[in-house]
C-alpha cells in the first residue's frame, strides 16, 4: 500500500517522462489513441465520482466564500490568461484554440494530491474541483466559443454534449456506486488514484507523440505559452486568495486549484472537435501544471 501511494504521488515524474519519451519516439504511445483516450478520461472521472457523496455537496455550504472565490478565479483568470498568452506569442490558430480550451477547463483532480502535499486544505480542494467540474458542462463550451471563436469554428452545443458524455455521466455513475455499491467502491478505491495517473500519462504522451513534429517546429512558442499560462494561474490564484485575506493554507489551496487544469478533458475535447494539433497544448499543459504544482508543494511543505 505504501509503495502504491509513493508511486501515485510521483505522478509529475511519470507524466514528464512519458511526454519526453513521446517526443523522442512517438510510436511508444501513439497506439493509445481514438476511443482509448475518450474511455480513459471517462475512467478518470468515474474514479473521482466514486469518492463523492451527497454530504460533499452539503459541505460547500460550510465554506461558501472560499469555494466561490476559487470558482470565480478558475473561470476568469485562466480563460483570459489563455487568450492573452495565445495573442502575446502569436500562436498558430490550432495551438491557440487548444491553449484557450484547456484554460477554460475545470480544475484537475491531481490538484487534490498536490494540495495534500503542500499542506493545504484538502477538503476545500476537493469541493472546488467538484464545483468547477460540474460547472464545466456549461462554462467550458461557452468560454471556449467566446474566446477561441476567432481562431477556429467552435460548435458550443457539440462541445457541451461531449462534456456531458465524458464528465457528467461518469461522475453520476461514480456517485451512484458510492452510495449503492460501497463494498465494490472500497475494493477499487485504493487503486483508483494510480489508475488515473497512468491514464493521464498515456493520454498526454499519446497526443504529444501524434503532434511531435509540430511541437518541435513551434520554436518554443507553444512551450512558453503553456508555461506562462500555468505559472500565471498559480501566481494570480494565490494573489486573489490573499486579496480576500484567507489564511496561508486556503491561499495555497486556491493557487493550486486555479493553476492546475483538467488537461485530459481539454485533450479529449480538442481532439474530438478541433484537431490533434489543438490537443497538443492540453497534453503539454498536463506536464507543466504537474511539475510546477509539485515544486510549489515541496517548497510550501518545507516552509510549513
Describe this structure in words.
There is one protein chain. Helices cover 81% and strands 0% of the residues. The chain has helices spanning 2-9, 11-24, 27-30, 35-49, 54-59, 64-74, 77-88, 93-103, 110-117, 122-148, 156-180, 182-188, 192-210, 212-217, 221-243, 248-259, 263-273, 276-303. The model has no long low-confidence stretch (mean pLDDT 82). It is built from 18 helices and no strands. It has 304 residues and is mostly helical. The protein has one domain: Na+/H+ antiporter like fold.
Outline of the structure:
The protein is an all-alpha fold and 304 residues long. The protein is 81% helix and 0% strand.
Question: How many helices does DSSP assign?
Answer: 18
Mean pLDDT comes to 82
CATH domain topology: Na+/H+ antiporter like fold
Can you tell me the residue ranges where pLDDT is under 50 for at least 5 consecutive residues? Answer: none
The helical percent reads over 70%
Decide which structural class fits the backbone.
mainly alpha
> Order of helices and strands, N to C?
HHHHHHHHHHHHHHHHHH
Radius of gyration: 18 Å
Please specify the SSE layout and strand pairing.
Elements: H1 2-9, H2 11-24, H3 27-30, H4 35-49, H5 54-59, H6 64-74, H7 77-88, H8 93-103, H9 110-117, H10 122-148, H11 156-180, H12 182-188, H13 192-210, H14 212-217, H15 221-243, H16 248-259, H17 263-273, H18 276-303
Helix pairs in contact: 2-13, 2-18, 4-11, 4-13, 6-10, 6-15, 6-16, 7-8, 7-15, 8-10, 8-17, 8-18, 9-10, 9-16, 9-18, 10-11, 10-16, 13-18, 15-16, 15-18, 17-18
Amino acid at each position: 500500500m505504501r509503495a502504491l501511494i509513493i508511486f501515485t504521488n510521483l505522478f509529475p515524474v511519470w507524466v514528464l517522462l512519458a511526454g519526453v519519451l513521446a517526443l523522442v519516439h512517438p510510436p511508444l504511445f501513439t497506439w493509445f489513441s481514438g476511443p482509448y483516450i475518450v474511455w480513459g478520461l471517462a475512467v478518470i472521472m468515474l474514479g473521482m465520482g466514486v469518492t463523492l457523496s451527497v454530504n460533499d455537496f452539503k459541505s460547500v455550504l460550510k465554506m461558501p466564500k472560499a469555494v466561490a472565490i476559487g470558482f470565480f478565479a478558475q473561470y476568469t483568470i485562466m480563460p483570459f490568461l489563455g487568450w492573452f498568452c495565445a495573442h502575446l506569442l502569436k500562436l498558430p490558430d490550432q495551438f491557440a484554440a487548444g491553449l484557450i480550451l484547456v484554460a477554460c477547463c475545470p480544475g484537475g483532480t491531481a490538484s487534490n494530491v498536490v494540495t495534500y502535499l503542500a499542506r493545504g486544505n484538502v477538503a476545500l480542494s476537493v469541493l472546488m474541483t467538484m464545483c468547477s467540474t460540474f460547472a464545466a458542462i456549461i462554462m467550458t463550451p461557452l468560454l471556449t466559443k467566446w474566446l477561441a471563436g476567432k481562431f477556429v469554428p467552435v460548435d458550443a452545443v457539440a462541445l457541451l454534449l461531449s462534456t456531458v458524455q465524458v464528465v457528467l455521466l461518469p461522475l453520476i455513475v461514480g456517485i451512484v456506486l458510492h452510495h449503492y455499491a460501497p463494498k465494490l467502491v472500497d475494493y477499487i478505491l485504493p487503486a483508483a488514484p494510480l489508475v488515473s495517473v497512468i491514464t493521464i500519462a498515456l493520454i498526454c504522451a499519446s497526443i504529444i507523440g501524434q503532434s511531435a513534429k509540430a511541437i518541435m517546429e513551434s520554436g518554443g512558442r507553444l512551450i512558453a505559452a503553456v508555461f506562462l499560462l500555468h505559472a500565471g494561474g498559480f501566481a494570480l490564484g494565490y494573489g486573489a486568495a490573499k486579496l480576500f485575506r484567507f489564511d496561508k493554507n486556503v491561499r495555497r489551496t486556491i493557487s493550486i486549484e486555479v493553476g492546475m487544469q483538467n488537461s485530459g478533458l481539454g485533450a479529449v475535447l480538442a481532439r474530438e472537435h478541433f484537431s490533434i494539433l489543438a490537443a497538443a497544448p492540453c497534453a503539454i499543459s498536463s506536464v507543466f501544471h504537474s511539475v510546477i504544482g509539485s515544486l510549489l508543494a515541496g517548497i510550501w511543505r518545507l516552509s510549513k
